[in-house]
Design goal:
The complex is a heterodimer of chains A (about 450) and B (about 800).
Chain A (H helix, E strand, L loop, with lengths): L44 E7 L14 E2 L17 E8 L12 H8 L19 H9 L8 E4 L15 H5 L3 E3 L2 E2 L6 H9 L7 H26 L4 H26 L18 H17 L5 E5 L8 E2 L4 E4 H5 L5 H27 L1 E2 L2 E2 L4 E7 L14 E4 L10 E10 H11 L4 E3 L14
Parallel strand pairs in A: 1-7, 1-12, 3-14, 4-7
Antiparallel strand pairs in A: 2-14, 3-13, 5-6, 8-9, 10-11, 12-13
Helix pairs in contact in A: 4-7, 5-6, 7-9
Chain B lengths: L1 E2 L37 H7 L1 H8 L22 H4 L1 H12 L13 H21 L10 E2 L2 H12 L5 H4 L20 H19 L9 E6 L6 E4 L2 E8 L3 E10 L9 E7 L2 E8 L12 E10 L2 E10 L10 H4 L10 E8 L6 H6 L8 H15 L6 H16 L4 H14 L1 H4 E2 L12 E3 L2 H12 L6 H8 L6 H13 L4 H11 L20 H20 L6 H4 L2 E4 L1 H7 L10 E4 L12 H6 L8 H13 L24 H9 L2 H15 L13 E2 L2 E2 L4 E2 L5 E2 L2 H9 L2 H17 L8 H14 L3 H10 L1 H4 E3 L21 H11 L1
Antiparallel strand pairs in B: 2-12, 3-11, 4-5, 5-10, 6-9, 6-11, 7-8, 7-10, 13-20, 14-15, 16-17, 18-19
Helix pairs in contact in B: 4-5, 8-13, 11-12, 11-13, 12-13, 15-16, 17-29, 18-19, 23-25, 24-25, 27-28, 28-29
Chain lengths: ~450, ~800
């Protein structure tokens, strides 16, 4: 039995940030030409960090455009990375709007954030679309052990309706594998650790090979079982079992991948122990592992739900005992708005810690951050009025020498968010003509 | 090139926002439907039309749409059958007395009654004409609770599925809804590794570490938490099943004549052991007074909450304060808990006993018997020789790898635990795609429906035996089983899972009352509240109390802490027991701390939330969602400048708000004597509490008990709501229009019987939807879409299975 004396207060990544890194991403491992790689061979990574309930926009939007001047208050924590990110104005998610569906902006904006689909207003007949990160994962995910990672910080609500008749599935999940199959985020740092690095119980190569053989046989066996079972079932039942089968296939693929890739990743970090009560500590553990997973090329796609849309988490650690969501309906009361600004700043501050890690990690003669596109944003602009236009959005990292950062880019009003997704898909090496309500690619990211 | 389209529904963009107002009632639904029986037009003209035209349409017409409702289209009798949902609302508003509202001349009561009777008569006529439809339940994946309970009952292994698997999404307020329970690659990965862990633990195959490990929790490092002067608690992870030496350190000493005290040791709320602890000075030589005690105990792997406490420790009551209680000179207390282990357990694991029903060394026949027995239970139905043969291949495979027969059984067990036959509850159809063909589910399928309904777990041997003998279709046998199951201790799962979600008390874990405003809120208080509601619910079930007890019981379940919190004297000790209530401050679930806490904001009460809670969960008439951009209350001002009541009343002055809030808030105010964590109060800030109110139907009350008494008048409605929830939970699907008839039938039996809870359970179990199912039309909605990137041909796995066979 191992009972740590106490949770390590600061679980840090030894090695990360120094030149000596024992992780297996080697330039030589990359095939010569890959659309999702940049010259030099490193792949491009993409991540989404989603914050709920909109923002106080006066502290987010500056009066100027172009090259960064004094950063707006909410983004102050990003000051050290001023040259590494771009702020984009006017991106809009029309599918977050009511469009005849009535109340429920939170359920809608969260559900449609990565899918660009007007989600079905229902508690039971969940219907969304495949999210664009999963389109990318379907195309390039085979190259890594995990096609994508879905992470979060907050347990799903246990009972009740999440927003005015929208199923909790829309607010509990960002990534959607198909129109009915959300991908639930992993919350527990320990579970993420074990998924990425194993349980910590060392296995000999022979034991590993045997486990792998057994697992494959079991998966074959149950696949066969499912096909036999399906013949006696109706269409909806079959659809359920098809979900099961497609999940089996994905696990088989991971097994194949793990068999080919014999290198064991040494995370250089202590195994976390449960979910820390402290928000900042929890985020740090989770995001540290994102950095390692990216560095070791375990995955190239991450979606990270900081907290749920419409969620009412209080932030006592910064002196705010009120729930986040009720606060955002501030009716322009200065004290309430100030509290929301503080929450917005607090979130950005945590994220900036992750950016620092990414930047401190060298990859070839560049940094891991340079080869990434980390989108930090919200599904609502003003949370008080539920505005779906001019969504707060920054992209950190240059996407492999592509994005000309260090500035604020203001696009045409009502530019679909999905245009940005198309451009990001290009960078990830996935050529898609149209996605969601896109009207074209987002121009100007690469033009200073 | 890929093209991903937006929703196929027309998107009108935001230029038509006005249409969204009252979209619900904009026009009668006219989509093609099966032929509905014609409505008695003459009766409609005589009983309905005059009132609708003269009384209602003044405020509900094409230009004035109060509450977003235009009733003009409903002057057409055909709408009674074509838009029943709307008519149900109309009838409900009239019946409850909400409409017509104050200030509008009311037609004579007998005319109103005639209207209601006529429309309800038409509904019944329509129901009688429709072919009874049992509906259809989709293959149900076991949710986390069901998985954990099933593993426990199958293998005697406690696997914390709730800490391992992702949260199950819920629909209709429950997390066992078949259509919602999706499966993802992450979950599949977890199923696979969980199967390995569980099978290995069940067979006792995990090697223990060569040397025991020591770990401790103590007060000094705050890894041990103080609950009270006699009790401490610590969260610890146990990495291996096994025996552990648990050592307790007791700093301090009491007087030389101090009596020994009993100490209890709990894991996850379960008492594991009690020992007697000597309290006299130990006379051992320490720098400070100290003594210790230890025992050996079997601990299962997992994250556990350990608690140790002196039971009935009268001595601490003589101590003034914490300073004295933790003074080494004045008191002896629990200062540390040390775990040393694991050691090989001396007792044979219960799981091995369950699996090894014969000695596998005796030969293949026994191994086959073991595997067949496991599959029989894991699949909850008889298995075919071919299925057993398929599983036996895993035993052979392990042997071919140089492993033992036991390891082979373990591998076969792993395969079973990942099989859809274990993970899903599927029911076979003879005509899966013909919605006209319905059939009774088999006795064996019915056994699983019963056990997952009442136990959230697999059928036990007795139930499965009766089912496999084909006796469960016999109503007497069925009733005997249901009666047995309701009073079995496994029925605690029904309280946990059904009541936990119906009454939302599962949310006790996610609410975060403001510690500054509510310092009394502690994990212990929270657990005590949960226990109260759970025990109360179970008592109503096992004692077959009338469901009116949920509203207005004269008893509850308390321990000393909760009794004190409620201001009730004479309850001593940490054990919960039934307590008769002598005042009307408490009584029924709406006066229980758990319900009051989950229906509040972190910093204050919300009559609106509580009112909505009553409408949703008790009366079954959820209010429509509020229009967008409704201003919220300013929390900092509540109870400071103006009373909450005044603020909400101002809010209600807005007629758009008033239509719902006039009922919601009044009900919620009826609970204002309880603060945001359920404590009784008579003032909020500097304002005295005024809970009096009158409902839209004219009934008024002065006290919380008075409000409960008014609710009691709505027994048929409350019962209807509860039946609907129980049916949803029992079937794992939402209620459809065709289920109305069943619900109404059950409600009639309930009324005839005095609303006893067990009657409801029996009636649900005997109902058509619980006992039957039908086929389903193939549509574009339910046929599987081609998922991108999924190119593996379906025939391939069968080939691979053959390969296994050859090996």
């Amino acid at each position: 039995m191992t009972i740590p004396k106490a949770l390590p207060r600061r679980t840090f990544l030894r090695g990360l940030g120094t030149a000596a890194i024992g992780l297996p991403f080697l330039d030589a491992m990359a095939p010569a030409l890959r659309a999702s790689t940049i010259p030099g061979g490193a792949p491009i990574r993409m991540a989404f960090f989603y914050v709920p309930n909109g923002m106080i926009m006066d502290a987010w939007t500056p009066s100027w455009e172009g090259k960064f001047q004094d950063l707006p208050r909410t983004l102050k924590a990003m000051e050290p990375f001023k040259d590494d990110f771009i702020q984009i104005g006017n991106l809009t998610h029309n599918t977050g709007r009511a469009l005849l569906d009535g109340a429920g902006d939170h359920g809608r904006c969260s559900g449609s954030y990565l899918t660009g689909i007007q989600v079905k207003k229902s508690l039971i007949e969940i219907k969304n679309g495949i999210s664009f990160d999963q389109i990318v994962a379907n195309q390039i995910g085979k190259k890594t052990r995990f096609p994508s990672l879905e992470l979060g910080m907050e347990d799903a609500r246990q009972a009740g309706d999440c927003d005015s008749g929208y199923s909790c599935a829309y607010t509990n999940n960002l990534a959607w594998r198909s129109e009915t199959q959300p991908l639930p985020p992993t919350l527990d740092p320990r579970a993420l650790f074990e998924r990425l690095f194993g349980t910590g119980v060392p296995m000999t190569p022979a034991e590993k090979a045997r486990q792998s053989k057994y697992r494959r046989s079991i998966l074959d066996f149950v696949t066969d079982d499912t096909h036999k079972l399906e013949t006696t079932l109706g269409p909806t039942d079959r659809r359920k079992l098809d979900e099961y089968l497609s999940s089996i296939r994905e696990v088989e693929r991971q097994l194949e991948h793990a068999e080919k890739d014999n290198s064991q990743v040494d995370p250089h970090m202590e195994k976390p122990y449960g979910i820390p009560a402290d928000f900042a500590e929890h985020f740090k553990l989770m995001s540290d592992m994102v950095a390692i997973a990216f560095q070791a090329d375990q995955t190239r796609i991450v979606t990270f739900l900081m907290t749920h849309e419409g969620g009412s988490r209080p932030y006592r650690e910064i002196g705010i005992p009120d729930g986040h969501h009720p606060l955002t309906h501030h009716r322009n009361q200065p004290e309430l708005m100030e509290k929301v600004r503080k929450i917005n700043e607090y979130h950005v501050k945590q994220f900036a810690g992750f950016v620092e890690k990414m930047k401190a990690t060298k990859e070839g003669d560049r940094t891991l951050l340079d080869n990434s596109m980390l989108v930090y944003g919200a599904g609502l602009a003003d949370g008080n009025q539920h505005l779906h236009e001019d969504l707060p959005t920054i992209i950190v990292g240059k996407g492999g020498n592509y994005i000309k950062s260090g500035r604020r880019l203001v696009t045409r009003r009502e530019t679909p968010m999905c245009n940005l997704y198309l451009t990001m898909m290009d960078r990830m090496g996935v050529n898609v003509e149209h996605f969601g309500d896109s009207t074209g690619r987002l121009e100007g990211l690469d033009l200073a | 090139m890929l093209v991903y389209k937006t929703s196929s529904r027309p998107v009108f963009s935001a230029i038509l926002p006005l249409l969204t107002v009252g979209a619900l009632w904009a026009a009668p639904a006219t989509t093609a439907k099966p032929k509905t029986p014609s409505v008695d037009a003459a009766g409609f003209d005589a009983n309905v039309k005059p009132i609708l035209r003269n009384t209602c349409s003044g405020c509900h017409n094409a230009t004035v749409t109060s509450g977003g409702v235009n009733l003009l289209p409903y002057l057409d009798p055909v709408t009674v059958s074509e838009d029943r949902a709307a008519w149900e609302k109309i009838v409900q508003k009239i019946q409850s007395g909400e409409m017509p509202p104050k200030g509008i001349p009311r037609p004579p009561q007998e005319k109103m009654t005639a209207l209601v009777t006529f429309v309800q008569g038409e509904f019944e006529k329509a129901d009688a004409a429709v072919k009874p439809d049992p509906g259809r339940v989709t293959a149900r994946r076991l949710n986390r609770n069901e998985y954990r309970n099933t593993i426990h009952d199958l293998l005697a292994v406690d696997f914390r599925a709730d800490k391992t698997f992702p949260t199950d999404d819920s629909g209709y307020g429950f997390d066992n809804i078949s259509d919602i329970l999706a499966i993802s690659p992450v979950l599949m990965e977890k199923y696979l590794s969980a199967a390995e862990t569980i099978a290995s633990r069940a067979m006792g195959a995990d090697p223990l570490p060569k040397k025991p490990i020591e770990a401790s929790a103590d007060l000094k490092t705050k890894t041990l938490r103080r609950l009270d002067f006699s009790t401490v608690e610590a969260t610890q992870r146990v990495d291996f099943d096994g025996d552990y030496t648990v050592r307790f350190g007791f700093p301090g000493e009491r007087t030389a004549d101090a009596k020994p005290v009993k100490m209890g040791f709990w894991m996850d709320g379960q008492l594991l052991k009690t020992i007697e602890v000597e309290m006299k000075p130990s006379k051992l030589v320490y720098f400070n007074p100290f003594s210790d005690a230890e025992f050996k105990v079997y601990l299962p792997e997992g994250d556990h909450l350990f608690r140790a406490g002196f039971i009935d420790d009268d001595f601490v009551k003589t101590l003034k304060d914490a300073k004295e209680a933790y003074s080494d000179k004045k008191n002896k207390y629990i200062g540390s808990i040390t775990f040393v282990g694991p050691f090989a357990s001396t007792v044979e694991k219960a799981s091995r006993k369950k699996i090894l029903i014969c000695d596998p060394k005796t030969g293949q026949a026994c191994v086959q018997k073991i595997v067949a027995n496991l599959a029989h239970h894991a699949y909850r139905r008889p298995v075919t020789p071919a299925e057993v043969a398929g599983l036996m291949k895993f035993v052979a495979m392990a042997k071919a790898q140089g492993q033992s027969t036991e390891q082979g059984i373990q591998l076969a067990l792993e395969a079973m635990l990942v099989s859809p036959q274990f993970l899903f509850r599927t029911e076979r159809d003879a005509n899966p795609t013909d919605p006209e063909k319905s059939h009774r589910v088999s006795d064996v399928e019915l056994a699983s429906r019963l056990s997952y309904f009442l136990w959230s777990s697999m059928p036990d041997d007795e139930l499965l035996n009766v089912a496999e003998a084909g006796k469960l279709k016999d109503a007497t046998v069925l009733d005997a089983q249901v009666r047995r199951m309701m009073t079995d201790k496994k029925a605690a799962a029904f309280a946990d899972n059904f009541a936990g979600q119906w009454l939302e008390i599962r949310n006790l874990d996610s609410i975060k009352p403001d510690p500054v405003k509510f310092p009394a809120w502690t994990p212990e208080l929270k657990e005590a509240m949960r226990t109260e509601t759970n025990m109360f619910f179970q008592d109503v079930l096992t004692e077959n109390r009338p469901i009116s007890d949920f509203i207005n019981a004269k008893y509850t379940f308390l321990n000393e802490m909760l009794a004190k919190y409620y201001g009730i004297d004479g309850v001593k000790g940490p054990d919960f027991r039934r307590v008769d209530l002598t005042t009307d401050q408490r009584g029924g679930i709406l006066a229980q701390g758990s319900v009051l806490a989950v229906s509040s904001y972190p910093s204050r009460t919300s009559p609106t939330i509580r009112g909505k809670y009553i409408l949703n969960n008790i009366l079954g008439t959820p209010p429509p969602p509020p229009p967008p951009d409704v201003p919220a209350l300013d929390d900092s001002k509540v109870g400071a400048e103006v009373s909450l009541r005044k603020q909400l009343e101002a809010h209600r002055a807005n007629p758009v708000c008033a239509s719902c809030h006039s009922k919601m808030d009044v009900l919620g105010f009826g609970l204002e004597n309880y603060d945001a964590i359920g404590k009784w109060r008579t003032a909020d800030g500097k304002f005295p509490i005024d809970i009096s109110g009158s409902l839209p139907n004219g009934k008024s009350f002065q006290t919380a008990a008075g409000m409960r008494a008014i609710l009691m008048d709505s027994m048929p409605q409350i019962s209807h709501c509860l039946i609907e929830k129980v049916m949803t939970y029992a079937l794992g699907r939402g209620m459809q229009a065709y289920d109305n008839r069943t619900i109404e039938q059950i409600n009639k039996s309930m009324a005839a019987d005095g609303y006893h809870f067990q009657t409801m359970i029996f009636e649900v179990v005997h109902s058509l939807p619980f006992q039957s199912r039908r086929g389903e039309l193939v549509t574009s909605q339910n046929s599987p879409p081609a998922s991108p990137g999924d190119t593996k041909p379906k025939t391939q796995p069968a080939v691979k299975a053959k390969e296994i066979a050859q090996k």
